[in-house]
Structures are given as structure tokens and as C-alpha cells.
């Protein structure tokens, strides 16, 4: 059973940020990201799915807060950036390699960021009015990444299109 505990406090921003980072940690079991166990395409989809689940829970958490305590655009953007940084650290950490013998996850930071941006855009895009400025920032980041790594991003886009279509129609 999925549950979400919402903190109502004097510092909802701090709890929001910490809660979203922990939401990603919960989604990031090394078995799902290990390229010695999974195909590269499966690992990329698993990373995307972890970000999409985190984005969904982030949206639910924010929605549950009173209007006056909902996170600002600036806090949501900082939180997304920090989730990307955390994800890359977790995926490439030496401690994970020690715990899971033979663990291998060869993804670049730019790939991790693009997967996160794509997942957050997909989830928050359904709630456009509340997240218009965040979506504009996500679009700017996606455009920059795609300009830098267009060939690699096109391959990843094709992979995700099929998966998102499958999930949306399930």
C-alpha cells in the first residue's frame, strides 16, 4: 500500500525538499540500475520510472499542503535539481558498487538530468496551471541538453516514447 505522510510545520519548505529527496531514494534499488543484470535500455527506463514516481509523489505532497504553505517555484526547481544530483551520486557511488558486487551503471550526468526533466515534464505537464514556470524552466533545460547531445537524446526519446505510451494506455 502506498502512503504519503505530510508534515504540517513552521518550515514546510525544508520538509518538502527532504521528503522529495527521500522519495527518490526509496525508488532507487541498485538491482534496477545494474547494467550487469539489465539491458541498458531497461536501466534507462528504470531511472525514468523512478523520476516519474518521485514527480507524482512530489505533486501529491505539494497538493496536500495548505495553499499558504505550498512550495514556491524556486523551491520546486531547487528540489528537482537536487534530485538529479542525488540520483547521479547514487547511481555512480562507490559504496553501491561495494554493496552490490559487480554493480555497473554507465550513465552520464546529462542522461540522468534529461531523464529527470522528461519525467517531471510528463507528470507536472498534466497540472500545467500550477507549474507553468517550473515547466518553462524544464523546457529550457531540456532544450539546452538536446542541443548539446542531440544524437544520444534522440535515441533516449524514442525509447521513452514507447514506454510512456504503454504506461498511459495501461
TrEMBL record:
Its EC number is 2.7.7.49. This is Telomerase reverse transcriptase. It comes from the Eukaryota. Gene3D superfamilies: 1.10.357.90. Telomerase is a ribonucleoprotein enzyme essential for the replication of chromosome termini in most eukaryotes. It elongates telomeres. It is a reverse transcriptase that adds simple sequence repeats to chromosome ends by copying a template sequence within the RNA component of the enzyme. It catalyses: DNA(n) + a 2'-deoxyribonucleoside 5'-triphosphate = DNA(n+1) + diphosphate. Pfam families: TERT_C (PF21399). The keyword Cytoplasm does not apply. The lineage of its organism: Eukaryota, Fungi, Dikarya, Ascomycota, Pezizomycotina. Belongs to the reverse transcriptase family. Telomerase subfamily. It comes from Oidiodendron maius (strain Zn). Residues 16-137 form the Telomerase reverse transcriptase C-terminal extension domain. Keywords: Chromosome, Magnesium, Metal-binding, Nucleotidyltransferase, Nucleus, RNA-directed DNA polymerase, Telomere, Transferase. GO terms for biological process: telomere maintenance via telomerase. GO terms for cellular component: chromosome, telomeric region; telomerase catalytic core complex. One of its GO terms (molecular function) is metal ion binding. It is found in: Nucleus; Chromosome, Telomere.
Amino acid at each position: 500500500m502506498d502512503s504519503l505522510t505530510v508534515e504540517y510545520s513552521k518550515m514546510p519548505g525544508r520538509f518538502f525538499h527532504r521528503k522529495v529527496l527521500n522519495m527518490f531514494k526509496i525508488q532507487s534499488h541498485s538491482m534496477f540500475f545494474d547494467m550487469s543484470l539489465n539491458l541498458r535500455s531497461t536501466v534507462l527506463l528504470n531511472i525514468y520510472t523512478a523520476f516519474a514516481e518521485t514527480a507524482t509523489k512530489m505533486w501529491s505532497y505539494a497538493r496536500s499542503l495548505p495553499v499558504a504553505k505550498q512550495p514556491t517555484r524556486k523551491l520546486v526547481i531547487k528540489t528537482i535539481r537536487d534530485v538529479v544530483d542525488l540520483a547521479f551520486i547514487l547511481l555512480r557511488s562507490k559504496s553501491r558498487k561495494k554493496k552490490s558486487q559487480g554493480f555497473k551503471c554507465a550513465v552520464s550526468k546529462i542522461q540522468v538530468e534529461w531523464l529527470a526533466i522528461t519525467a517531471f515534464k510528463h507528470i507536472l505537464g498534466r497540472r500545467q496551471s500550477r507549474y507553468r514556470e517550473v515547466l518553462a524552466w524544464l523546457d529550457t533545460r531540456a532544450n539546452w541538453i538536446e542541443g548539446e547531445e542531440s544524437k544520444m537524446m534522440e535515441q533516449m526519446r524514442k525509447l521513452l516514447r514507447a514506454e510512456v505510451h504503454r504506461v498511459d494506455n495501461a
